[in-house]
From TrEMBL:
One of its GO terms (cellular component) is cytoplasm. One of its GO terms (molecular function) is glutathione transferase activity. Residues 1-83 form the GST N-terminal domain. Residues 89-230 form the GST C-terminal domain. This is glutathione transferase. SUPFAM superfamilies: GST C-terminal domain-like, Thioredoxin-like. Homodimer. It is found in: Cytoplasm. It catalyses: RX + glutathione = an S-substituted glutathione + a halide anion + H(+). It comes from Phaedon cochleariae (Mustard beetle). Transmembrane segments: none annotated. Belongs to the GST superfamily. Theta family. One of its GO terms (biological process) is glutathione metabolic process.
Amino acid sequence: MVLKLYYDLLSQPSRALYIFLKLNGVPFQQCPVSLMEGEHRTEEFKQKYSKFQKVPFIHDGDFKLIESIGIMRYITREYPIEDHWYPKDSKKQAKVDEYLEWQHLNIRLNCSTFLITTWMNPMRTGKQPSQEKYDSSKKYMLKSLSTFEELFLSDDGPFLMGKEISYADIQAACEIEQPRLAGFNPMVHYPKIKTWIELVRKECNPYYDEAHEMLNMLAESSGKSTKAKL
């Protein structure tokens, strides 16, 4: 049976997996789930598709798995994947894992918190966040972005792990694109991040642009109406 990917391209890890599968020619059935319409919140969805009610997740025959990074690791074991994405060499693989573990409480947490505070919650409730909440969420996001530049964008190579692109680059780029939905573009304020993302985009196209089409459209609209300034 063909692998089924359940995803929403407004979800950062969904985009990362989508790009990864496309780049490596892994055959999969596209199963979009609209988070904006709450398709994942129904009891039917919970019983039929995923008890966790989150995306992305996969069904590979009778085997079901959530969590994008766990899915990526599974895919590299089950399908012929180019080694540089998630190297079999223990030390090289460990360096990819180093970023993937670090990002949970840094880039992912703080970029997501900023987006939820300034875009998602106001859209759901019709109420803007207090200045205190806005300032706090932005402060932690900016700290994570600065730390990311300092720790991972070094002179050892153009990508996070050096001279070759890895899954860590896709994951990080998709997370750092996300605040654009709330009118804040990290690439405007962080030149090293801008250069690196442009390289990731080039390496991953046409699938990078394909995965970010909806985000780009919404970000353009948001940028016209949101005044997010440093």
